[in-house]
Amino acid sequence: MATQHRRSTSTLLWIATTLMLLLLLTRTLISAGIGGGVSLLAQTVLITVFTLLHGSRRYGWRAMLVYYAVTLVVSNVLENLSILTGFPFGNYHYTTGPQLFGVPLAIGPFYAAIGYMAWTIGTLLVGEVRRGAGRLTTVGTPVIASFAMVAWDLAMDPTRSTIQQFWIWESSGGFFG
Predict the structure, then answer these.
(1) CA 134, CA 140: separation in Å to the nearest integer?
(2) Higher pLDDT, residue 176 or 165
(3) Phi and psi at residue 124, to the nearest 5°
(4) How far apart are CA 118 and CA 127, in angstroms?
(5) What is the pTM of this model?
(6) How far apart are CA 177 and CA 158, in angstroms?
């Protein structure tokens, strides 16, 4: 029974990964033909499915649902705090998508997915953080995961904000503007 469940989860992971790859490879055609909103919705659904399925295999459903819920709440609170006060990310506002208090609904799932993938990279490079793990693993894994998350953000932000204008910075700086 457990083998069958793992096999069906693996199949779903491969399907989600394949669909995401096809979506990303054809995104220009999709955006031009039926609207970018469909592409963003499909990406959001696929990364959510992938993150929850993959994570449930490693950490269990309960842990992944808690992780996902906490990530959605914390990311929305911090994004809204920044929009309202400029802290911690600076002064900006979003221009796209259905929003919850000024933050597009897709932001939380993307944070959750990229955060989970960054954590996975950290565990692959340093080791899984568990009871009894050494200091290198306990400290190194979150540090590597943080660097991976920041690298993704630094690579994604300039295009998304200046070219695609998903959000607008209120004042320019050394990195933006």
Answers:
(1) 10
(2) 165
(3) -70, -40
(4) 13
(5) 0.81
(6) 9
